[in-house]
Design brief:
Strand content: 5-15%
Organism: Kribbella capetownensis
Order of helices and strands: EEEEHEHEHEHHHHHEHEHHHHH
CATH topology of the largest domain: Rossmann fold
Protein name: Alpha/beta fold hydrolase
GO biological process, one term: regulation of DNA-templated transcription
Keywords: Hydrolase
CATH architecture of the largest domain: 3-Layer(aba) Sandwich
Largest sheet: 9 strands, mixed
Oligomer: single chain
Pfam family, one: Abhydrolase_1
CATH class of the largest domain: Alpha Beta
């Protein structure tokens, strides 16, 4: 069943709905163009809010550049049904099956991030004929409760933190997760992630989701996967230790392992590890990005972001821009972060690249 499709004016994202076997309504989105790649649902996403995210936007841009990206909000989260009875590994696998069938793709590359990697492994074991490639980032074959007493205690503490503070307007408890997921994140990035978690689901559902993740086990299923697999992991990951990525790669018969120099569980746009991840992904999939026009992305900027970028292109500092526009310096920095994400520029050269893109777009 598919219904209620619409197009986002800025990103031309098509959102549709399909029904899982237990009638839970799942929201999925399609954008980009090229060979299909399906991203398994992962922790705390929202199909609409992710486009404005300094944490997720660069992932969406990169995955949709040269590919048709299909992604969905997991049951209980985002635009999918929030009030659900069944939150389990089997339900997650069935949800993935429902989404790919509704999207109408026959063969595709499958990307599993974090706990989504285990779901991807199960799907690959069941449906090898559907997959061209399997990519697992920050994944694991066994949940935290299966990794020893210390990890079990940590799992219990994190579940208690969710239960105690998730719905509180004070982000203290949610910020614990943001610091684990994004230890190198800026205050703005972590603040955005704090808010995303609260807006994506309820405290009660978050507890159930995190508890189910702690009990995942695809150790036996992994041995049955015959799809060529790329396993990528941040070497200093605070959420899923790199040893779990190594174990996952060892269990998969056709896997290659790439370790990245990062502590972030979600790679950020301005770190070298992100650039390497995209390069490794494209080399593995054998695809190239679609060449962008010099001014590409400018049309996605808000009026205020354009005001700020125009002054950057004129050579003004953030402090002078803030004074000129009657803004705080932090607000200027926030607008620039959003601008860099939308223009797909990052790192130390991001400011100059964004200014050049703006100047190019002003030419007749």
């Amino acid at each position: 069943m598919q219904s209620c499709s619409r197009y986002d004016r800025q990103v031309r994202q098509k959102v549709g709905y399909c029904a899982a076997p237990d009638a839970v309504k799942l929201a999925y989105a399609v954008h980009g163009g090229g060979p299909p790649i399906v991203r398994v649902a992962t922790w705390m996403t929202h199909l609409e809010f992710d486009w404005e995210s300094p944490v997720w936007r660069h992932w969406l841009d990169a995955l949709g550049d040269g590919h048709t990206l299909i992604r969905y909000d997991e049951r209980g989260c985002g635009l999918s049904d929030r009030d659900v009875d069944d939150i389990s590994f089997d339900a997650w696998v069935a949800d993935l099956e429902a989404v790919v069938d509704a999207a109408g793709v026959d063969r595709f590359a499958l990307l599993g991030v974090s706990a989504g990697a285990a779901v991807a492994v199960a799907y690959a074991a069941r449906h090898p004929e559907r997959l061209t490639h399997l990519v697992l980032y920050g994944g694991y074959a066994r949940g935290r409760t299966l990794r020893g007493a210390g990890e079990r205690r940590l799992q219990e503490a994190l579940v208690a933190a969710i239960s105690a503070g998730w719905a509180n307007p004070d982000p203290t408890f949610r910020h614990l997760f943001s610091m684990l997921f994004l230890p190198a994140g800026t205050p703005e990035q972590m603040g955005w992630y704090d808010d995303l978690q609260r807006h994506s689901t309820s405290a009660a559902t978050a507890v159930r989701l995190y508890d189910a993740r702690g009990r995942l086990n695809v150790v036996d299923l992994a041995a049955r996967v015959r799809t060529r697999t790329l396993v990528v992991h941040a070497a200093e990951d605070r959420v899923v230790p790199a040893d779990e990525g190594r174990l996952l790669a060892t269990l998969l018969p056709e896997a290659q392992l790439v370790l990245l120099e990062s502590a972030n569980h979600i790679l950020l746009s301005d770190e070298p590890a992100w650039t390497r991840f995209v390069a490794e992904l494209r080399a593995f999939l054998g695809t190239e990005p679609v060449s962008a026009s010099p001014g590409a992305g400018i049309e996605e900027l808000s009026p205020r972001e354009l005001d700020v970028l125009a002054l950057v292109a004129a050579g003004l500092t953030n402090e002078v821009i803030a004074d000129r526009l009657s803004l705080s310096v932090r607000t200027v920095e926030r607008h620039l972060t959003n601008t860099y994400v939308k223009l797909r520029v990052s790192g130390k050269a991001g400011r100059a690249a964004a200014a050049a893109r703006f100047s190019e777009a002003q030419r007749p």
